[in-house]
Amino acid sequence: MKNLTIIILAAGKGTRMNSSVPKVFQPLGGIPLIEHALNSAKTLNPKEIFLILNKNISKEDFNNEKLVYCFYQKRQLGTADAVKTCLARLKNNKNKVLVMYADHPFIESKTLKKVVNLKSSKSIKLLSFKKEEHNSYGKVILGTDSFVKEIIEQRELNSKDRYILCNSGIFCAHAKIFSQLLPKIKNNNKKKEFYLTDIFKIASQNNFHTEIVLGEESEIMGINDKKELAKAEKILQENLRNKFLKKGVSMKDPDTVYLSADTKIGKDVTIYPHVFIGGNVTIASGATIYSFSHLENCKIGNKSSIGPYARLRPGANVSDGAKVGNFVEVKNSTIGKNSKVNHLTYIGDAEIGKNVNIGAGTITCNYDGKKKHKTIIEDEVFIGSNSSIIAPVKIGKKSYIGSGSAISKDVKPKSLAVERSVQMEIKNWSKKVKK
C-alpha cells in the first residue's frame, strides 16, 4: 500500500520490566519485541514507517531497516504527544496513517488490513475487542449510531462503570485528520497526559465517521513486564510448534522444543525432546535433531543428523547427509557432504570437505591467544581419534592422520601423517617403584 504511513509507538520507558534493556529490545522468540511489530507492519507494504522512540534508544539500531524513520519524544507526556513528534511529516500528506504499538507482537496482517480499509476520507477506524472480565484496557463508548463516541482510560472510569468493548490502541485515519485533530487534544485527566485516544471524542464531535472493527484479544496482547513477556513466550512457542507440525515437521515431544521466530524448517524433519533452536537457524528437509542439542545461527542440510548433546554455534554449516554427533561443538565451520564428526570433538574456524571422518576427541586448535586461524581438511580425509589439528593448517585430499597426533604442518594428499612420542616400555618398573 504505497499510500500508507505506519506509526509505531515505542517511546515508553518500560519501567515495569525492571531491566537495563529497553522494553522494545526485550527478546521474544529470539528477536526483539519491536522487530515483531516491524514485521507485522511490513506485511502491508507501506510507503514509510515512523518509529517514535525515547532518548535511551539509538536510531543506529535501525540503520538496516528500509523505509524506517526515527523520531524522539523528549518528555513522557502521553501518546498524543508522541505522535506530534512526526506531525510535520504528516502535513500535506495524502496517505492513510496507521498507529501501532511496539509491544503488540501477535497482531496479524489480515486484521491490520481490515483496520486500514477506510470507507472515506472522513473515516477513522479503531481495532477493538470484547472482554467481559474486569481489566485495565481503555473502554470504547459507542453512540446511538454505533459510531465511537469516546474512549475512556480505565483509570478515568467510575468504579461502578462496566463496559466490555475494549480499546487496542491500533487505529487508522487519513493524515489530514491527524493534522487537524491532534492539536486539539488536551491533558485534562488524572495523569495530565495527552491521550491519543481522545482523538475519537474530538472526531465524533466534528462529524467524522468513527468506526470500529472487532478483533481477538489474543492478537492485541500488550507486554509490560517480565511476567507478561513469559506468557507471550509461551503463546509464541505454541504458535510456532503448531505452524511447523502443520508443515510436516515431526516433534517427539513438542512442549520441550524451543523455537525462534525466524526459524526455518523443511518437511520431514524430526526433532527429539529437549532441543533449543536459537535465532537464524535453517534446517533442511529430512534432517534429524536429537535430544539436548543447542543450535544458533547455523544451517543444517538435507538428511543430516545432529546430536544428541550437540552444539552448533554461529557460522556452523552442516552439509547434506553429514553427521554431528554427541558432545560435538561446531563454530564458524563447514562440515562437508556425508562427512562424520561423531563424538567428543571441537571444530572451529574450519572447512571440512565431503566424506571426511573425524575421530573421537579431535580438536581443531584455532586460537593462538591473539588471533583465530583456519583449518582446511579436504575430501575423504580420515582423522584418527584424539588428534589435535593446530591451525593454520591444510590436510590434503584422501590423507590419513594417525590417532593421537598433533598436526601443525600441512599434510599432502594421500599421505599418512603421524606425530606422537615413541612408546617406551620399562620392564619390572613397578617392582622398583614399590621398593
TrEMBL record:
GO-annotated cellular components: cytoplasm
Entry's Gene Ontology BP terms: cell morphogenesis; cell wall organization; peptidoglycan biosynthetic process; regulation of cell shape; UDP-N-acetylglucosamine biosynthetic process
Compartment(s) where it occurs, according to its Swiss-Prot or TrEMBL record: Cytoplasm
UniProt keyword annotation of Kinase present: no
Keywords tagged on the record: Acyltransferase, Cell shape, Cell wall biogenesis/degradation, Cytoplasm, Magnesium, Metal-binding, Multifunctional enzyme, Nucleotidyltransferase, Peptidoglycan synthesis, Repeat, Transferase
Catalysed reactions, semicolon-separated: alpha-D-glucosamine 1-phosphate + acetyl-CoA = N-acetyl-alpha-D-glucosamine 1-phosphate + CoA + H(+); N-acetyl-alpha-D-glucosamine 1-phosphate + UTP + H(+) = UDP-N-acetyl-alpha-D-glucosamine + diphosphate
Chief location of this protein within or outside the cell: cytoplasm
Needed cofactors: Mg(2+)
InterPro entries reported for this sequence: Bifunctional_GlmU, GlmU-like, GlmU_C_LbH, Hexapep, Hexapep_transf_CS, MobA-like_NTP_Trfase, Nucleotide-diphossugar_trans, Trimer_LpxA-like_sf
Pfam families: Hexapep, NTP_transf_3
Gene Ontology MF terms: glucosamine-1-phosphate N-acetyltransferase activity; magnesium ion binding; UDP-N-acetylglucosamine diphosphorylase activity
Family recorded in the similarity comment: In the N-terminal section; belongs to the N-acetylglucosamine-1-phosphate uridyltransferase family.
Entry protein name: MobA-like NTP transferase domain-containing protein
Source organism per UniProt: marine metagenome
